[in-house]
Design goal:
Elements: E1 5-11, H1 14-22, E2 27-32, E3 40-45, E4 48-54, E5 62-67, H2 71-80, E6 84-91, E7 96-102, E8 108-114
Length: 115
């Protein structure tokens, strides 16, 4: 199973929040879309990562991204265990298959894998 997971913050001012974390030593490692104004960035400092996405007014302020081997199988297992499914698996334009569930505390969790 992939050994990668990170929190995602949804913010109203992505550029300002990005500068804040860069001031703490984080460096940008990913941006989507790749050209122009980003809607999402990933920052890294050592082994730590954080995602920052534009859109705090659109719902969850904090979510968690977890890479899995198989999004569909992982979602089926979580569903069978009683997890609330928020979104079924969909192939995304950046090349990953993604589903969404809620953990028992209600936190949004993204399940992702390369297509």
């Amino acid at each position: 199973m992939p050994d990668d997971a990170f929190p995602i913050l949804s913010v109203s001012d992505l550029a300002r929040t990005k500068r804040f974390y860069e001031g703490l030593g984080f460096e940008q490692t990913y941006q989507f879309p790749p050209d122009g104004e980003p809607g999402f960035v990933t920052l890294q400092r050592g082994a730590s990562q954080i995602g920052i996405g534009a859109g705090a007014e659109e719902g969850d302020r904090v979510a968690y991204w977890v890479y899995v081997d198989d999004v569909d199988a992982s979602l089926d297992a979580l569903r069978a265990a009683g997890a609330v499914v928020v979104a079924e698996p969909v192939d995304q334009p950046w090349g990953e298959r993604v589903a969404q569930v809620r953990d028992p505390a209600g936190t949004l969790v993204y399940l992702g894998a390369a297509v």
